[in-house]
Amino acid sequence: SPSRVIFQQKKIKAPRNHLGLVVFVSTLVLKPFADLNMPKKQVNKKKAAAPSSKKVASKPVAPPKKTIVKKPKLRKRDNPLFEKKPRNYGIGNDIQPKRDLTRFVKWPKYIKLQRQKRILLKRLKVPGIINQFTRTLDRHSAGALLAFLEKYAPETRQQKKARLLGQVKDEAKGKQIESGKKPKFVKCGLKHVTSLVEDRRAKLVVIAHDVDPIELVLWLPTLCRKKGVPYVIIKGKARLGKVVHKKTATCLAITDVEIKDAKDLAIFIEKGV
User: Fold this and answer.
1) What percent of the chain has pLDDT over 90?
2) SS3 21
């Protein structure tokens, strides 16, 4: 048969079943027509350059780069007298360095209240009647006033006991004792000072600026102005308390002084309100 001849010429093994034979024959018949429709590949043929008579200058060859050899840095020799002992902050070793633990401290309640109050006073509009306690006497004048008040500090229990014993001894010796004279001391106590201001017997009233609650002395400057009694506001209720031998004092009043100290009292009255 003709198909057997084709297979013999091309040396191709024929497929054994009929379906494979039909597919194989169709590929052999249609292959030459498929090659005609395919575009031809363009082959770029480079033209050989004609030999020119001009001499081409050769490119200058760069000199080889010099290899820079880095000298190793000589380490300073450690002083053999001082041996290095690096610290180890692990558990059970060196003591840990000190750190600022302010943020982690559980502060007492009164300190928290102080700080909250200070922030509120900065941020809120403070009424004038409260704000007047921020306008205190200057540092130099306050120190001079406290030194003046200490001259007229009330006597302690020991001093009073010694004075009374002295009077008894004088009576036993037959000496005359002047009675009826009150000692010239600084008056303390809010109720006592208030009564002195109302009776206009106080010559100068000293008020602490940090009384808590402030409502205790909030009305006292107004009362002093109404009665015409001069007053000053000073920093530190503890400083006033020290004058009268107590922890703190809200206010003090001066009723009478010696003749030699009248001039100093007049200076403090001028500085008062």
Assistant:
1) 41
2) helix
